[in-house]
Design a protein that fits this description.
Helix 1 runs parallel beside helix 12, helix 5 crosses helix 6 and helix 7 packs across helix 8. It is globular and about 70 Å long. The chain has a five-stranded parallel β-sheet with strand order 3-2-1-4-17, sandwiched between helices. The longest helix is centred in the middle third of the chain and has 22 residues. It folds into two domains: about 240 residues, FAD/NAD(P)-binding domain, CATH 3.50.50; about 200 residues, 3-Layer(bba) Sandwich (FAD/NAD(P)-binding domain), CATH 3.50.50. It is an alpha/beta fold. The protein is built from 17 helices and 17 strands.
């Protein structure tokens, strides 16, 4: 890695937003250290996007690989903020030009019912752990939690992620029922062809399988579900069209995967039996001026052996980072700048709270551009001049670069070298030899397609 006076930035998290920011900064001649909490940098592409998205996962992972392979990027796996890195130490003592927090939203928002979290694992699951299990349990070396999915589960949510949870529940319960009848199918077939079509091929229905299916409970109306977006400055007529499209999309989704939905219901109290969660008491709601209002005396008792909460994800609190409610305390979402530190910026779904790939990609690009142009005041012509001078490969060229960058507060070659050595120490602690491509190949996971093929051969 050729050294010259420049900036050095730490990026926490190497998935969609983190890799995009690292690449956009790295290609401008800035040195980047990407600290990733997992062996692989794919974040919710790997652990949040359900595993039936085989082609999409491969495509997005390939994009991340290309960005993190840039010559100015130092990748550090198995190194998490709050576990291996102290945030305050990183900000105050390491000497980075800036720190970008792309560590994602990995903590489930809690269900707002008194006492319910006593039943996690005892009739209550949260979305992030549940989807992580689904995405990895087929791997031969999987050693995490194992979930049994009963019929008639309750899913509480309403966002796009909750529909993924609904599909997982329906696929898992139907798959188990078909297995009892010695009917061979798999996750990919049930998802791609639809549960309804697979059952019709065998002259079956949910009722014939002895299943009732799960139910999604949503505090708003079906027409409020974010399945289609309003155009900018949408007219009342345009909004009505979007409402119609949303209802149609959900109806098609229900027809394919055979679940039920109950709109305008909010969870209110728990129902327990033998020290386990055994259902939820819901209340009816109505939407008044876009606000959810709970209706009095409208309790509905719903029994179920399983409740899955899918009411959103928030960032994990990190010691040293001020919070504003559930989120990091920012000056604004556009720049992602933390109020307490002018050189720390948050990006991706740690800010947006959305698992949307495009939203994370765009926000990562947006924050990188802001850091470059407004915080570092680092122009494209600065890097072009560096390349021009560096081509001479002499001590004089380094001095020329330093003179040219006077006033831009770049780090000296000695400081850059010192940071690289410190980062390489963390790489060694993680067992990483510096070769990104080799590391990823070594840590390749068993795909669902390979697992299905192996299953069919036995």
């Amino acid at each position: 890695m050729e050294l010259y006076p420049t900036h050095f930035i730490a990026v926490i998290g190497g998935a969609v937003a983190g890799s995009e920011a690292a690449f956009n900064l790295g290609k401008r001649g800035i040195k980047i250290a990407v600290f990733e909490q997992n062996p692989r940098p794919y974040g919710k592409i790997e652990d949040g996007l359900p595993k039936w998205h085989v082609k999409l996962q491969a495509k997005e992972e390939s994009k991340i690989d290309a960005k993190l392979s840039h010559s100015n990027v130092l990748f550090v796996p198995n190194t998490a903020l709050g576990r291996n890195l102290n945030f305050i130490d990183l900000v105050k003592n390491w000497g980075f030009s800036a720190i970008l927090l792309a560590n994602g939203a990995w903590q489930d928002r809690l269900l707002p019912i008194d006492g319910i979290d006593e039943f996690v694992g005892k009739g209550l699951f949260y979305q992030n752990d549940f989807v992580n299990w689904f995405n990895h349990y087929h791997e031969s070396d999987y050693d995490g939690e194992h979930y049994q999915i009963p019929d008639s589960a309750i899913i509480i949510g309403g966002g796009l992620a909750s529909l993924d949870v609904v599909k997982i529940v329906m696929i898992e319960t139907v798959l188990a029922a078909l297995k009892k009848l010695a009917i061979q199918t798999d996750i990919l077939e049930l998802e791609h062809d639809s549960i309804r079509k697979v059952l019709e091929r065998h002259n079956l229905t949910l009722d014939k399988l002895g299943l009732k299916g799960c139910t999604l409970f949503y505090r708003r109306r079906v027409m409020d579900m974010p399945l289609a977006q309003f155009p900018h400055d949408a007219s009342p007529e345009a909004r009505e069209k979007v409402y119609f499209v949303r209802k149609k999309i959900l109806k098609n989704f229900q027809d394919k995967y055979l679940f039920k939905i109950q709109e305008c219901r909010v969870p209110w109290e728990i129902i327990t039996k033998n020290d386990r969660l055994n259902g939820i008491i819901f209340k009816e709601t109505e939407i008044i001026n876009s606000r959810v209002e709970v209706k009095n005396d409208t309790e509905h008792k719903v029994l179920s052996p399983l409740v899955i909460s899918s009411v959103g994800s928030i960032p994990v609190p990190i010691e040293g980072i001020d919070m504003e409610g559930e989120l990091y305390d920012l000056t604004d979402q556009e720049t992602g700048q933390l109020k307490q530190f002018n050189n720390v910026f948050a990006l991706g779904n740690v800010v947006t709270g959305k698992g949307n790939i495009k939203a994370s990609y765009e926000h990562g690009k947006q924050v990188a551009a802001h850091v470059l142009e407004h915080f570092l005041v680092w122009r494209e012509e600065d890097y072009e001049k560096i390349l021009q001078f560096s081509a001479q490969r002499t001590k004089v060229s380094v001095d020329k670069i330093a003179d040219m960058l006077n006033g831009k507060k770049v780090l000296s070659v000695d400081k850059i070298r010192s940071l690289i050595e410190k980062v390489e120490g963390y790489q060694r602690n993680a067992g990483f030899n510096g070769n990104y491509t080799e590391w990823i190949a070594k840590h390749k996971l068993e795909s669902i397609e390979d697992a299905i093929a192996a299953q069919r051969q036995t």
